[in-house]
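Predict structure. Chain length: 178.
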Amino acid sequence: MAISKPTILLVPGAWHQPGLYQPLAKELERLSYTCLTVATATVGKDSHGKTWADDVVAIMAVAQPLFDEGKEVIIIGHSYGGLPTVAATKDQTTVDRASRGEIGGFKQLILLAAYVIPERGSDLRSLGEKYPDWTEWQPEYTKVKLYPYLQWLPVSDQNSLIEQVNSPQRRSKGHSLQ
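Prediction complete.
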C-alpha cells in the first residue's frame, strides 16, 4: 500500500485572495501533493468587522473535513496569515487529536515570512501601540500605502501582483508603485 502524502493548506496574508497562491499550488500539485488555499474571512467585500478569529473559523472549515477523512495536513501561513494559522493549530495537531482518539490533524506548521504574536498579545501592542508608517488606519478599514516587501521585484511584476491583492487603496485609486 502506498503511503499518502499530507495535504497542504495555504493561508493567505492580509489583502491576498487565494488566486495569488495559484503558481505555488500548481507546483506543489506537480509534486503530487493535494494543495488547498483558504479564502480568509478578513479579505473581500464582506470582510468589514472580521478578525483573525473569523479567519481561524475559515481555516477550520477547510481543515476539519480533511481531518474527518484521516488526512494529515501541512499548514502554511503567509505574512499576516501566520496569526490565524498558529491559532488554528491549537489542540488540532495529529498528536493532540490522536490523544483524544481522533484521526487526522495538522502534521506540520510552516510560517512563510509570517507575522506571529504571543497567544495573549495583540498585533498592535507588539507594534508599540501604533500602526507602521506604511499603513493608514481608520475605524472602518486599514490600508497599505506602500508594498515594501515587493520593492525587490521589477515594477511590472509588482503591479501584476498588486492587481491580485484585494486592497481598498488599489480598488479606489488604481494603486501603483511607479
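Summary: The chain has two domains: 7-120, 131-178.
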